[in-house]
User: Fold this.
Amino acid sequence: MPVKMHQVFYFIALSEEQSFTRPAKRCGVAQPSLTRGIKTLEKEFGARLFERSKSNVRLTQLGLLVRPDFERVSQATTFLAQRITELKAASPSKPSATAMEAPMRAPVLAVTTIALILLGLAFRPTPSATTGAPE
Assistant:
């Protein structure tokens, strides 16, 4: 089963906060949901990602190994969300006619050119009509 985005965010938050209460608040979920997400992730990896004690939570060797990749995924997702927000704010809600026409310009130009060439060939005078001499 593939890793889900919320599991990545739970993992990052838990590895930074080192407790289950603060990451749950940070991720906007109840603590049992965060715990379930982490346990599911650990089950998918087949090993523990965190060592748990009454006072804190620490990354295991496997957790330390996957953390850089999860951080890159989290950063890329955050960057993508920001870009989408910027694009939505910068562009009108309805695509402009020129933006919709742009992908069609090259095929239309090609078809028009071919049509003109074929039209020219169809109306080209025969060699005998141009020389004025009988064949």
